[in-house]
Design goal:
Blueprint: H1 2-19, H2 43-50, E1 57-58, H3 68-82, H4 86-99, H5 133-146, H6 153-167, E2 176-177, H7 187-193, H8 201-209, H9 215-222, E3 230-231, H10 236-240, H11 254-263, H12 266-272, H13 288-296, E4 300-301, H14 303-307, H15 320-326, H16 333-336, H17 342-352, H18 357-371
Antiparallel strand pairs: 1-2, 3-4
Helix pairs in contact: 3-5, 3-6, 4-6, 9-17, 9-18, 15-17
Family: Belongs to the peroxidase family. Classical plant (class III) peroxidase subfamily.
Keywords: Calcium, Disulfide bond, Glycoprotein, Heme, Hydrogen peroxide, Iron, Metal-binding, Oxidoreductase, Peroxidase, Secreted, Signal
Catalytic activity: 2 a phenolic donor + H2O2 = 2 a phenolic radical donor + 2 H2O
Length: 389
């Protein structure tokens, strides 16, 4: 009986949050300058969003593997105690999975040995620096010992990411489970459809809108950059060769430009950077040694550290990302571009204007929406014994 009440409370809470999110949507706008995002009472959006409830469930494994979520959470707690940057790694890994053909664990598939005609999403340029694969494999192995071929890799990644967010000081949000794993990867789609560090605001808005994510979802999800570091390989073109000009981005404040160049030495650029021109298509993937060098590089910049250089601790789920954008200190061109659009700029200002509660609520809401994109359920897909193949 108690479990039934818990499920009812969770469902109602999420429904109310998604239909009428608090925060920026409640900020007063003048009649001459209305926001462009959809009304919080857009029932067509609500119906589309909650159609997943016919297949996904809260605590889907309560009978088939009753300790599944506890195993994931305890494993994540242990992993996080040893490596706190795992939260940022899993957030990025989860986003890259869901953004391409939905949350189906296709990002976890390894290349096929001896098959030069097939490339995994791991080999796509935007994914070369992804981390967190080892940790997901560890959790999967533990679950396979307890419940063989029951818990999907897609659900493991979804649950582990939520737990990683909470461990990093972020908000809790419910994860509905019952996903199944993709039988294939989507290399071409990953090459073409993931947001890039140098995207302008129009392309970023288009990519999110194509997945049913509105401006508020986009701006709050990009707030994940609050944690972890932005790798220097994503910044260097902006510092030395913006848009192929052999010059820095003219919009960067000279003082901040010098700081960024100091933190991201050209020596590191020469040693570890792999340009888009150097990476071949599926017939000739990037050499594994180059990929590993990129993934192991620790050179990068933190939004929290750059906004508050006197502080030694890493920032959590706060407002420093948005405050950095307001001060013109966006590390990525795509981040700073949020201030180039009137509506997204207003959202940034709204998130930066309070104690972080608005951002945290909207981030949780957006993560629920992201986590149910184009999921495979029922007889679709498969349950992999190993996440890599």
């Amino acid at each position: 009986m108690l479990n039934g009440w818990v499920l009812a409370v969770v469902f109602i809470t999420v429904l109310v949050s998604l239909c009428n999110p608090r925060g920026v949507s409640d900020i007063a706008f003048s009649s001459s300058n209305p926001p462009s995002f959809s009304s919080p009472f857009d029932f067509s959006e609500t119906h589309r969003l909650f159609s997943f409830l016919s297949t996904l469930q809260y605590d889907f494994y309560r009978q088939s593997c009753p300790h599944a979520e506890k195993i994931v959470s305890s494993s994540m707690a242990l992993i996080h105690s040893r490596r706190q940057d795992v939260s940022a790694s899993l957030l990025r890994l989860f986003f890259h999975d869901c953004f391409i053909q939905g949350c189906d664990a296709s990002i976890l598939l390894d290349p096929t040995t001896g098959d030069d005609t097939y490339s995994s999403e791991k080999q796509a340029i935007p994914n070369l620096t992804l981390k967190g694969f080892v940790e997901i494999d560890q959790i999967k192995e533990e679950l396979e010992r307890v419940c063989p071929r029951v818990v999907s890799c897609a659900d493991i990644l979804s649950l582990a990411t939520r737990d990683a967010v909470v461990l990093a000081g972020g908000p809790f949000y419910p994860v509905f489970t019952g996903r199944r794993d993709s039988t294939r990867a989507y290399f071409e789609e990953a090459m073409a459809e993931l947001p890039r560090p140098d995207d302008n605001i129009n392309r970023t808005l288009y990519l999110f809108a194509a997945r049913g994510l509105d401006e508020r979802d986009m701006v709050s999800l990009l707030g994940a950059h609050n944690i972890g570091k932005i790798g220097c390989q994503f910044i260097l073109n902006r510092l030395y060769n913006f848009s192929g000009t052999s010059l820095p981005d003219p919009s960067i404040d000279p003082e901040f430009l010098n700081l960024m160049r100091f933190k991201c030495q050209e020596k590191e650029h020469n040693n570890t950077h792999v340009s888009h021109d150097q990476v071949s298509p599926a017939s000739s993937p990037t050499p594994e040694a180059s990929v590993e060098t990129l993934r192991r590089s620790t050179l990068g910049m933190s939004y929290f550290q750059e906004l508050s250089p006197s502080l030694s601790l890493e920032g959590g789920f706060d407002t420093h990302y948005y405050k950095s954008l307001l001060s013109g200190r966006g590390l990525l061109y795509a981040d700073q571009q949020l201030m180039a659009d009137e509506n997204t700029g207003r959202l940034v200002k709204g998130y930066a204007s309070d104690d972080g509660s608005t951002f945290r609520m909207d981030f949780a809401r957006a993560m629920v929406k992201l986590s149910v994109l184009d999921v495979l359920t029922g007889s679709q897909g498969q349950i992999r014994e190993r996440c890599g193949f």
